[in-house]
Amino acid sequence: RSVEEFVPLGDEVKMYVCGVTPYDRSHLGHAMSYVIFDVLRRYLEYNGYKVQHVQNYTDIDDKIIARAQRLGIQPDELTEHYISEYSADMQALNVLPADVYPRATHEIPKMIEMIQGLIDKDSAYSAEGDVYFRVGAKDDYGKLAHRSLDSMLAGARVEPGAGKQHPMDFALWKGSKPGEPAWDSPWGPGRPGWHIECSAMSLRYLGERIDIHGGGADLIFPHHENEIAQSESYTGCVPFARYWLHHGLLQLGEEKMSKSLENIISIGDTVGRYGSDAVRLFILSSHYRTPLTYREENLMAAQRGAQRLRQALELQDVSGKGELDAEPYRGRFLEEMDNDLNTAQAIATLFDLAREINRAHDEGRSMGSAQTLLRSLSADILGLTLAQEENSKEAAPFIDLLIEIRDELRQQKQFALADTVRNRLSDLGVALEDSAEGTRWRLGNDSRYK
Hints:
Elements: E1 12-17, H1 28-46, E2 50-55, H2 62-71, H3 75-92, H4 108-120, E3 124-127, E4 130-133, H5 149-155, E5 170-175, E6 190-192, H6 194-206, E7 210-216, H7 220-235, E8 241-247, E9 250-252, E10 255-256, H8 267-274, H9 276-284, E11 292-293, H10 296-314, H11 327-338, H12 343-363, H13 368-381, H14 390-411, H15 415-427, E12 430-435, E13 438-443, E14 446-449
Parallel strand pairs: 1-2, 1-7, 7-8, 9-11
Antiparallel strand pairs: 3-4, 4-5, 5-6, 9-10, 12-13, 13-14
Protein backbone atom coordinates (compact mmCIF):
# COMPACT_ATOMS: atom_id res chain seq x y z
CA ARG A 1 0.00 0.00 0.00
CA SER A 2 2.83 2.34 -0.79
CA VAL A 3 4.98 3.36 -3.75
CA GLU A 4 8.54 2.12 -3.41
CA GLU A 5 11.60 2.11 -5.63
CA PHE A 6 11.86 -1.20 -7.48
CA VAL A 7 15.08 -3.01 -6.60
CA PRO A 8 15.16 -6.69 -7.64
CA LEU A 9 16.80 -9.41 -5.60
CA GLY A 10 19.30 -10.26 -8.31
CA ASP A 11 20.17 -9.83 -11.96
CA GLU A 12 16.89 -11.40 -13.06
CA VAL A 13 13.42 -10.17 -12.06
CA LYS A 14 11.36 -13.09 -10.78
CA MET A 15 7.66 -12.50 -11.45
CA TYR A 16 4.77 -14.86 -10.69
CA VAL A 17 1.24 -14.11 -11.90
CA CYS A 18 -1.80 -16.17 -10.94
CA GLY A 19 -3.32 -17.77 -14.03
CA VAL A 20 -6.73 -18.94 -15.14
CA THR A 21 -8.88 -21.87 -14.08
CA PRO A 22 -9.69 -23.30 -17.53
CA TYR A 23 -13.27 -24.50 -17.28
CA ASP A 24 -14.93 -21.85 -19.49
CA ARG A 25 -14.08 -19.17 -22.05
CA SER A 26 -11.70 -16.46 -20.90
CA HIS A 27 -13.33 -13.06 -20.52
CA LEU A 28 -12.38 -9.39 -20.50
CA GLY A 29 -11.58 -9.56 -16.79
CA HIS A 30 -8.81 -12.01 -17.67
CA ALA A 31 -7.72 -9.75 -20.52
CA MET A 32 -7.44 -6.88 -18.03
CA SER A 33 -5.15 -8.88 -15.76
CA TYR A 34 -2.82 -10.26 -18.39
CA VAL A 35 -2.57 -7.07 -20.43
CA ILE A 36 -1.55 -5.18 -17.26
CA PHE A 37 1.14 -7.69 -16.34
CA ASP A 38 2.24 -7.90 -19.96
CA VAL A 39 2.87 -4.14 -19.90
CA LEU A 40 4.72 -4.44 -16.57
CA ARG A 41 6.97 -7.10 -18.06
CA ARG A 42 7.50 -5.11 -21.26
CA TYR A 43 8.43 -2.01 -19.27
CA LEU A 44 10.89 -3.89 -17.08
CA GLU A 45 12.53 -5.33 -20.19
CA TYR A 46 12.51 -1.90 -21.86
CA ASN A 47 14.52 -0.68 -18.88
CA GLY A 48 17.10 -3.43 -19.35
CA TYR A 49 15.90 -6.02 -16.85
CA LYS A 50 15.77 -9.70 -17.66
CA VAL A 51 12.44 -11.09 -16.48
CA GLN A 52 11.62 -14.68 -15.56
CA HIS A 53 7.82 -14.77 -15.84
CA VAL A 54 5.82 -17.73 -14.50
CA GLN A 55 2.05 -18.04 -14.82
CA ASN A 56 0.14 -21.13 -13.75
CA TYR A 57 -2.94 -23.00 -14.87
CA THR A 58 -5.20 -24.27 -12.08
CA ASP A 59 -6.31 -27.27 -14.11
CA ILE A 60 -8.02 -29.19 -11.31
CA ASP A 61 -10.64 -27.83 -8.91
CA ASP A 62 -14.31 -28.21 -7.99
CA LYS A 63 -15.61 -26.13 -10.91
CA ILE A 64 -13.60 -28.10 -13.46
CA ILE A 65 -14.80 -31.40 -12.04
CA ALA A 66 -18.44 -30.26 -11.95
CA ARG A 67 -18.37 -28.93 -15.52
CA ALA A 68 -16.67 -32.05 -16.88
CA GLN A 69 -19.20 -34.30 -15.14
CA ARG A 70 -22.08 -32.27 -16.54
CA LEU A 71 -20.64 -32.56 -20.06
CA GLY A 72 -19.79 -36.24 -19.66
CA ILE A 73 -16.07 -35.77 -20.41
CA GLN A 74 -12.82 -36.12 -18.47
CA PRO A 75 -11.54 -33.02 -16.64
CA ASP A 76 -8.29 -33.00 -18.63
CA GLU A 77 -10.23 -32.93 -21.90
CA LEU A 78 -12.14 -29.89 -20.67
CA THR A 79 -9.06 -28.03 -19.45
CA GLU A 80 -7.06 -28.80 -22.59
CA HIS A 81 -9.77 -27.22 -24.72
CA TYR A 82 -9.92 -24.01 -22.71
CA ILE A 83 -6.15 -23.74 -22.27
CA SER A 84 -5.84 -23.86 -26.05
CA GLU A 85 -8.53 -21.21 -26.42
CA TYR A 86 -6.90 -19.03 -23.77
CA SER A 87 -3.56 -19.23 -25.59
CA ALA A 88 -5.22 -18.10 -28.81
CA ASP A 89 -6.89 -15.21 -26.96
CA MET A 90 -3.56 -14.04 -25.52
CA GLN A 91 -1.93 -14.21 -28.94
CA ALA A 92 -4.79 -12.16 -30.40
CA LEU A 93 -4.24 -9.58 -27.62
CA ASN A 94 -0.50 -9.43 -28.39
CA VAL A 95 0.34 -10.62 -24.85
CA LEU A 96 3.87 -11.99 -24.63
CA PRO A 97 3.91 -15.63 -23.50
CA ALA A 98 5.21 -16.40 -20.02
CA ASP A 99 8.49 -18.30 -19.75
CA VAL A 100 6.75 -21.19 -17.97
CA TYR A 101 3.09 -22.20 -17.74
CA PRO A 102 3.07 -24.90 -15.03
CA ARG A 103 -0.13 -26.88 -14.59
CA ALA A 104 -1.32 -27.96 -11.17
CA THR A 105 -1.83 -31.57 -12.26
CA HIS A 106 1.81 -31.77 -13.41
CA GLU A 107 3.22 -30.42 -10.14
CA ILE A 108 1.67 -32.82 -7.59
CA PRO A 109 5.01 -34.27 -6.34
CA LYS A 110 6.31 -30.80 -5.42
CA MET A 111 3.08 -30.00 -3.62
CA ILE A 112 3.24 -33.23 -1.63
CA GLU A 113 6.84 -32.49 -0.71
CA MET A 114 5.89 -29.02 0.49
CA ILE A 115 2.86 -30.24 2.45
CA GLN A 116 4.95 -32.86 4.21
CA GLY A 117 7.54 -30.21 5.05
CA LEU A 118 4.84 -28.05 6.63
CA ILE A 119 3.62 -31.00 8.69
CA ASP A 120 7.20 -31.66 9.84
CA LYS A 121 7.46 -28.01 10.97
CA ASP A 122 4.14 -28.32 12.85
CA SER A 123 2.61 -25.70 10.56
CA ALA A 124 0.14 -28.22 9.17
CA TYR A 125 -1.67 -31.37 10.31
CA SER A 126 -3.54 -34.27 8.74
CA ALA A 127 -7.13 -35.09 9.62
CA GLU A 128 -9.21 -37.92 8.13
CA GLY A 129 -7.41 -37.89 4.77
CA ASP A 130 -7.25 -34.10 4.54
CA VAL A 131 -4.32 -31.85 5.45
CA TYR A 132 -4.80 -28.33 6.85
CA PHE A 133 -2.48 -25.39 7.37
CA ARG A 134 -2.46 -24.22 10.97
CA VAL A 135 -2.99 -20.44 10.71
CA GLY A 136 -2.30 -19.96 14.41
CA ALA A 137 1.30 -21.06 13.82
CA LYS A 138 1.98 -17.94 11.71
CA ASP A 139 2.16 -14.94 14.02
CA ASP A 140 1.77 -12.39 11.22
CA TYR A 141 -1.03 -14.17 9.36
CA GLY A 142 -3.17 -11.43 7.79
CA LYS A 143 -0.34 -8.99 7.08
CA LEU A 144 -1.15 -8.68 3.37
CA ALA A 145 -4.85 -8.03 3.90
CA HIS A 146 -4.07 -5.88 6.97
CA ARG A 147 -6.59 -7.82 9.02
CA SER A 148 -6.38 -9.73 12.26
CA LEU A 149 -7.33 -13.38 12.52
CA ASP A 150 -10.40 -12.49 14.56
CA SER A 151 -11.65 -9.95 12.04
CA MET A 152 -11.09 -12.40 9.19
CA LEU A 153 -13.07 -15.05 11.00
CA ALA A 154 -15.96 -12.64 11.53
CA GLY A 155 -16.40 -11.87 7.83
CA ALA A 156 -14.96 -14.88 6.03
CA ARG A 157 -16.52 -17.75 4.15
CA VAL A 158 -15.04 -20.60 6.15
CA GLU A 159 -14.37 -23.89 4.37
CA PRO A 160 -16.06 -26.83 6.09
CA GLY A 161 -13.85 -29.55 7.50
CA ALA A 162 -14.65 -32.06 10.22
CA GLY A 163 -11.04 -32.38 11.36
CA LYS A 164 -10.15 -28.69 11.51
CA GLN A 165 -8.50 -27.42 14.66
CA HIS A 166 -9.43 -23.79 13.88
CA PRO A 167 -12.21 -22.53 11.59
CA MET A 168 -9.72 -20.48 9.51
CA ASP A 169 -7.30 -23.35 8.89
CA PHE A 170 -7.26 -23.99 5.15
CA ALA A 171 -6.90 -27.15 3.10
CA LEU A 172 -3.52 -28.12 1.66
CA TRP A 173 -4.72 -31.57 0.59
CA LYS A 174 -8.27 -32.81 0.05
CA GLY A 175 -9.11 -36.47 0.46
CA SER A 176 -10.65 -38.06 -2.62
CA LYS A 177 -14.39 -38.33 -3.24
CA PRO A 178 -16.06 -40.94 -5.46
CA GLY A 179 -15.82 -40.13 -9.16
CA GLU A 180 -13.19 -37.41 -8.74
CA PRO A 181 -9.59 -37.45 -10.02
CA ALA A 182 -7.13 -38.40 -7.29
CA TRP A 183 -3.40 -38.81 -6.73
CA ASP A 184 -1.62 -40.95 -4.17
CA SER A 185 -0.13 -39.24 -1.15
CA PRO A 186 1.13 -40.11 2.37
CA TRP A 187 -2.33 -39.12 3.66
CA GLY A 188 -4.29 -41.21 1.19
CA PRO A 189 -5.60 -40.52 -2.32
CA GLY A 190 -6.76 -37.00 -3.01
CA ARG A 191 -5.90 -33.73 -4.72
CA PRO A 192 -4.21 -30.48 -3.69
CA GLY A 193 -5.97 -27.48 -2.22
CA TRP A 194 -6.06 -24.31 -4.28
CA HIS A 195 -3.50 -22.24 -2.37
CA ILE A 196 -0.65 -24.76 -2.21
CA GLU A 197 -0.50 -24.95 -6.00
CA CYS A 198 0.93 -21.46 -6.54
CA SER A 199 3.39 -21.72 -3.66
CA ALA A 200 4.77 -25.01 -4.95
CA MET A 201 5.03 -23.80 -8.55
CA SER A 202 6.64 -20.51 -7.56
CA LEU A 203 9.14 -22.35 -5.37
CA ARG A 204 10.03 -24.85 -8.09
CA TYR A 205 10.47 -22.40 -10.97
CA LEU A 206 11.53 -19.16 -9.23
CA GLY A 207 13.08 -20.17 -5.92
CA GLU A 208 12.34 -19.38 -2.28
CA ARG A 209 11.88 -15.64 -2.76
CA ILE A 210 10.46 -13.71 -5.69
CA ASP A 211 10.42 -10.07 -6.70
CA ILE A 212 6.88 -9.55 -7.95
CA HIS A 213 3.64 -11.43 -7.35
CA GLY A 214 0.55 -10.26 -9.22
CA GLY A 215 -3.14 -10.90 -9.57
CA GLY A 216 -6.56 -9.37 -9.10
CA ALA A 217 -7.62 -7.55 -5.95
CA ASP A 218 -10.03 -10.41 -5.24
CA LEU A 219 -7.02 -12.69 -4.63
CA ILE A 220 -5.57 -10.68 -1.74
CA PHE A 221 -7.58 -12.75 0.71
CA PRO A 222 -7.61 -15.64 1.09
CA HIS A 223 -5.44 -16.83 -1.80
CA HIS A 224 -2.40 -14.58 -1.59
CA GLU A 225 -2.56 -14.33 2.19
CA ASN A 226 -2.43 -18.11 2.35
CA GLU A 227 0.39 -18.29 -0.17
CA ILE A 228 2.48 -16.04 2.06
CA ALA A 229 1.72 -18.08 5.16
CA GLN A 230 2.56 -21.49 3.71
CA SER A 231 5.56 -20.31 1.64
CA GLU A 232 7.26 -18.45 4.49
CA SER A 233 6.49 -21.22 6.97
CA TYR A 234 8.00 -23.82 4.66
CA THR A 235 11.16 -21.98 3.57
CA GLY A 236 11.75 -19.67 6.54
CA CYS A 237 12.50 -16.89 3.99
CA VAL A 238 10.70 -13.60 4.64
CA PRO A 239 9.23 -12.00 2.67
CA PHE A 240 8.08 -14.59 0.16
CA ALA A 241 7.30 -11.85 -2.39
CA ARG A 242 8.84 -8.39 -2.16
CA TYR A 243 6.32 -6.46 -4.29
CA TRP A 244 2.62 -7.28 -4.54
CA LEU A 245 0.66 -5.77 -7.45
CA HIS A 246 -3.12 -6.17 -7.37
CA HIS A 247 -5.26 -4.73 -10.13
CA GLY A 248 -8.84 -3.54 -9.80
CA LEU A 249 -11.64 -5.69 -11.14
CA LEU A 250 -13.61 -5.34 -14.34
CA GLN A 251 -17.22 -4.46 -13.59
CA LEU A 252 -20.27 -5.30 -15.66
CA GLY A 253 -22.98 -3.18 -14.11
CA GLU A 254 -22.71 -3.51 -10.33
CA GLU A 255 -20.94 -6.88 -10.35
CA LYS A 256 -17.45 -8.02 -11.26
CA MET A 257 -17.16 -9.96 -14.50
CA SER A 258 -16.91 -13.62 -13.55
CA LYS A 259 -17.39 -17.03 -15.13
CA SER A 260 -19.16 -18.22 -11.98
CA LEU A 261 -21.66 -15.34 -12.27
CA GLU A 262 -22.17 -16.17 -15.96
CA ASN A 263 -21.87 -12.51 -16.95
CA ILE A 264 -18.80 -12.81 -19.12
CA ILE A 265 -17.91 -11.02 -22.35
CA SER A 266 -15.37 -13.17 -24.11
CA ILE A 267 -11.95 -11.98 -25.22
CA GLY A 268 -12.29 -13.50 -28.67
CA ASP A 269 -15.59 -11.78 -29.42
CA THR A 270 -14.34 -8.41 -28.22
CA VAL A 271 -11.04 -8.52 -30.10
CA GLY A 272 -12.90 -9.62 -33.22
CA ARG A 273 -15.24 -6.66 -32.96
CA TYR A 274 -12.90 -3.86 -31.86
CA GLY A 275 -9.35 -5.08 -32.51
CA SER A 276 -6.58 -5.85 -30.06
CA ASP A 277 -5.28 -2.28 -29.90
CA ALA A 278 -8.67 -0.96 -28.82
CA VAL A 279 -8.99 -3.59 -26.08
CA ARG A 280 -5.52 -2.80 -24.77
CA LEU A 281 -6.18 0.96 -24.81
CA PHE A 282 -9.51 0.42 -23.05
CA ILE A 283 -7.75 -1.48 -20.26
CA LEU A 284 -4.68 0.74 -19.99
CA SER A 285 -6.55 4.05 -20.08
CA SER A 286 -7.34 3.57 -16.38
CA HIS A 287 -4.81 3.05 -13.59
CA TYR A 288 -4.29 -0.64 -12.97
CA ARG A 289 -5.36 -0.43 -9.31
CA THR A 290 -8.75 1.13 -10.07
CA PRO A 291 -11.88 -0.83 -11.06
CA LEU A 292 -12.79 -0.70 -14.74
CA THR A 293 -16.38 -0.65 -15.99
CA TYR A 294 -17.28 -2.32 -19.27
CA ARG A 295 -19.19 -0.04 -21.63
CA GLU A 296 -19.39 -0.41 -25.38
CA GLU A 297 -18.95 3.34 -25.84
CA ASN A 298 -15.63 3.16 -23.98
CA LEU A 299 -14.38 0.44 -26.30
CA MET A 300 -15.54 2.45 -29.30
CA ALA A 301 -13.65 5.46 -27.93
CA ALA A 302 -10.56 3.28 -27.51
CA GLN A 303 -10.98 2.11 -31.08
CA ARG A 304 -11.02 5.72 -32.28
CA GLY A 305 -7.97 6.41 -30.12
CA ALA A 306 -6.05 3.59 -31.77
CA GLN A 307 -7.04 5.04 -35.13
CA ARG A 308 -5.66 8.48 -34.16
CA LEU A 309 -2.30 6.97 -33.23
CA ARG A 310 -2.26 4.91 -36.40
CA GLN A 311 -3.04 7.91 -38.59
CA ALA A 312 -0.14 9.88 -37.06
CA LEU A 313 2.20 7.05 -38.06
CA GLU A 314 0.84 6.89 -41.62
CA LEU A 315 1.63 10.52 -42.48
CA GLN A 316 4.42 10.97 -45.01
CA ASP A 317 7.45 12.70 -43.50
CA VAL A 318 8.40 16.12 -44.85
CA SER A 319 11.52 18.25 -44.54
CA GLY A 320 12.65 21.81 -45.01
CA LYS A 321 11.10 23.78 -42.16
CA GLY A 322 12.77 22.31 -39.10
CA GLU A 323 12.08 19.17 -37.10
CA LEU A 324 9.66 18.25 -34.31
CA ASP A 325 11.54 17.67 -31.03
CA ALA A 326 9.88 14.60 -29.51
CA GLU A 327 12.29 13.99 -26.61
CA PRO A 328 10.18 15.86 -24.01
CA TYR A 329 7.37 13.40 -24.76
CA ARG A 330 9.67 10.45 -24.12
CA GLY A 331 10.55 11.94 -20.73
CA ARG A 332 6.90 12.54 -19.80
CA PHE A 333 5.90 9.04 -20.88
CA LEU A 334 8.64 7.31 -18.89
CA GLU A 335 8.02 9.51 -15.84
CA GLU A 336 4.38 8.38 -15.77
CA MET A 337 5.31 4.73 -16.23
CA ASP A 338 7.79 5.01 -13.37
CA ASN A 339 5.00 6.36 -11.15
CA ASP A 340 3.32 3.07 -10.22
CA LEU A 341 2.79 2.11 -13.87
CA ASN A 342 0.50 5.05 -14.62
CA THR A 343 -0.48 3.92 -18.10
CA ALA A 344 -3.46 6.29 -18.26
CA GLN A 345 -1.25 9.39 -18.21
CA ALA A 346 1.39 7.71 -20.36
CA ILE A 347 -1.25 7.14 -23.05
CA ALA A 348 -2.37 10.77 -22.74
CA THR A 349 1.23 11.71 -23.53
CA LEU A 350 1.12 9.57 -26.67
CA PHE A 351 -2.01 11.36 -27.86
CA ASP A 352 -0.30 14.70 -27.25
CA LEU A 353 2.63 13.48 -29.32
CA ALA A 354 0.31 12.29 -32.11
CA ARG A 355 -1.34 15.72 -32.18
CA GLU A 356 2.06 17.41 -32.49
CA ILE A 357 3.00 15.04 -35.31
CA ASN A 358 -0.13 16.07 -37.21
CA ARG A 359 0.62 19.74 -36.57
CA ALA A 360 4.24 19.39 -37.68
CA HIS A 361 3.08 17.68 -40.87
CA ASP A 362 0.66 20.49 -41.64
CA GLU A 363 3.41 23.07 -41.00
CA GLY A 364 5.91 21.28 -43.23
CA ARG A 365 8.27 20.25 -40.41
CA SER A 366 9.97 16.87 -40.29
CA MET A 367 8.37 14.47 -37.80
CA GLY A 368 10.08 11.20 -38.73
CA SER A 369 11.95 10.84 -35.42
CA ALA A 370 8.74 11.64 -33.53
CA GLN A 371 6.89 8.94 -35.45
CA THR A 372 9.67 6.48 -34.59
CA LEU A 373 9.32 7.37 -30.92
CA LEU A 374 5.54 7.08 -31.03
CA ARG A 375 5.77 3.63 -32.59
CA SER A 376 8.44 2.48 -30.13
CA LEU A 377 6.61 3.57 -26.98
CA SER A 378 3.30 2.23 -28.28
CA ALA A 379 4.64 -1.14 -29.40
CA ASP A 380 7.58 -1.94 -27.13
CA ILE A 381 5.92 -0.89 -23.86
CA LEU A 382 2.15 -0.80 -24.35
CA GLY A 383 2.04 -3.73 -26.78
CA LEU A 384 0.02 -1.90 -29.44
CA THR A 385 0.46 -3.12 -33.00
CA LEU A 386 -1.05 -0.05 -34.70
CA ALA A 387 -1.28 -2.24 -37.76
CA GLN A 388 -3.97 -2.65 -40.34
CA GLU A 389 -6.64 -5.07 -39.12
CA GLU A 390 -7.34 -8.22 -41.12
CA ASN A 391 -10.82 -7.14 -42.19
CA SER A 392 -9.33 -3.95 -43.61
CA LYS A 393 -6.64 -5.89 -45.47
CA GLU A 394 -9.26 -8.06 -47.15
CA ALA A 395 -11.48 -5.12 -48.08
CA ALA A 396 -8.67 -2.77 -49.13
CA PRO A 397 -8.35 -3.74 -52.84
CA PHE A 398 -12.09 -3.35 -53.41
CA ILE A 399 -12.28 -0.03 -51.57
CA ASP A 400 -9.24 1.24 -53.50
CA LEU A 401 -10.92 0.27 -56.78
CA LEU A 402 -14.13 2.14 -55.88
CA ILE A 403 -12.13 5.21 -54.88
CA GLU A 404 -10.33 5.15 -58.25
CA ILE A 405 -13.70 4.94 -60.02
CA ARG A 406 -14.98 7.82 -57.89
CA ASP A 407 -11.92 9.91 -58.79
CA GLU A 408 -12.50 9.27 -62.49
CA LEU A 409 -16.17 10.23 -62.12
CA ARG A 410 -15.19 13.48 -60.41
CA GLN A 411 -12.66 14.26 -63.17
CA GLN A 412 -15.46 13.70 -65.70
CA LYS A 413 -17.66 16.04 -63.61
CA GLN A 414 -20.14 13.24 -62.94
CA PHE A 415 -20.50 14.42 -59.36
CA ALA A 416 -23.86 12.78 -58.69
CA LEU A 417 -22.45 9.33 -59.49
CA ALA A 418 -19.30 10.11 -57.50
CA ASP A 419 -21.46 11.03 -54.51
CA THR A 420 -23.39 7.79 -54.92
CA VAL A 421 -20.15 5.81 -54.61
CA ARG A 422 -19.21 7.79 -51.51
CA ASN A 423 -22.65 7.35 -49.94
CA ARG A 424 -22.75 3.62 -50.63
CA LEU A 425 -19.31 3.21 -49.08
CA SER A 426 -20.53 5.20 -46.08
CA ASP A 427 -23.51 2.85 -45.73
CA LEU A 428 -20.99 -0.02 -45.53
CA GLY A 429 -19.02 1.70 -42.77
CA VAL A 430 -16.27 3.17 -44.99
CA ALA A 431 -15.66 6.88 -44.44
CA LEU A 432 -13.78 8.93 -47.06
CA GLU A 433 -11.72 12.02 -46.26
CA ASP A 434 -10.54 14.11 -49.25
CA SER A 435 -7.39 16.21 -48.94
CA ALA A 436 -4.64 17.66 -51.10
CA GLU A 437 -2.64 14.44 -50.58
CA GLY A 438 -5.44 12.23 -51.82
CA THR A 439 -8.42 10.42 -50.38
CA ARG A 440 -8.11 8.79 -46.97
CA TRP A 441 -10.52 6.01 -46.19
CA ARG A 442 -11.42 4.51 -42.87
CA LEU A 443 -13.03 1.14 -42.18
CA GLY A 444 -13.87 0.44 -38.56
CA ASN A 445 -10.64 1.23 -36.72
CA ASP A 446 -8.37 1.41 -39.78
CA SER A 447 -7.37 4.25 -42.04
CA ARG A 448 -5.07 4.81 -45.02
CA TYR A 449 -4.44 7.05 -47.98
CA LYS A 450 -5.28 6.02 -51.52
